[in-house]
Amino acid sequence: MIDPKVTFVVPCYNLAHFLEECVSSILSQSYSDFEVLIMDDCSPDNTPEVAKSFADPRVIHVRNKTNLRHLANYNKGIKLARGEYIWLISADDRLRRPYILEQYVTLMDKRPEVGYVFCPAIELADDHETELLAYSFHGAQDSIFEGRKFLNKLLEGNTVVAASGMVRRECYEKVSLFPLDMPYAGDWYLWCIFALYYDVAYFSEPMVDYRSHNQTMTNLLMKANYNIFRDGIAVLTRIRDKSLIKGEDTIVMKCNDRLDRMITGYVNQIVLCNDNFIKSSVNEFEGLLRDYTLNDRRKLGARFYVQLADYYYCSGETAEARRYYLRALNRDWRLMKVWIKFIFLAFGKLGVHIRTFISDLRRRAAQKKTADMGNSLDSESGKRS
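and the corresponding structure tokens:
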């Protein structure tokens, strides 16, 4: 049997009522050299009946004996795939243009340096298309993005709708499958890590529908109170480590900067709640760090405690600020700025006044520098005119 050019992996769990629409959108493609693997994750609904209703030999129903959960089910489908290109699309999503596969394959055949191709998506709610998912839009022109440049953008957050991406098989084989410990951000990690090694193609026309409903994986994780912050930290630290090995210093710095901002955002989120919640969040954060290397535990922990200490300092709670600065220094004693902050607090009100005075001087100096730059630009503009 000749292997198909493309394999569609269609994971399905309790989505039988959407499955027919999804598979039909695939079967209606103008490019026909593909197979469809319906990955039935031991679904308790009528998925088997719907899967067997397709009178097309390209559609193959694979039912797991036990529920593997979504990421392991994805990986199983990828390993079973025979195609050169693999397109993972959930049973609740659909293709909205019959020529999308033909366009994708033509481009990927011509550009072997491209690891995956994607396009913007339209939100689908209550069986009606609503609006373009703005985060998935990367411009009005079809483009080939240099991988590392695109990765720089991706590190700010996932902008690739999973249902829109077709991946070169070797990306999964040579780089990575879905990491099983990232139930929320596994696809974000893959788009990032693939972009570290390959270029990325983009079609500007939105040719995929992404369905919004209560049973999406994101909503189910939210209902289960899954801490999505954990996955974000995991994505950034792993991409940083891989980039360090490849000598991609710019990416390493970007990851560290994004980690700082992510931790700041997390601290800002928890401090809006009461003290008991802050304390429980501190314990939860410590729990998240147990999966990391000793070096990362020190650095991430130090960043977290400095941010928390700064919050307490600005709130006038110097005792709490002192306590968390000390925790930060216990994680990384080389933080000279933190030592200075801690020493100021050791002098009580006098230290606070001195630190406030120095902060005011720095702020005024920065404002003056900004004003001087503005005056200089105005002066240059006046000379040119």
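(Above: one complete record from the training split.) Residues 6-223 form a domain with the Spore Coat Polysaccharide Biosynthesis Protein SpsA; Chain A fold (CATH 3.90.550.10).
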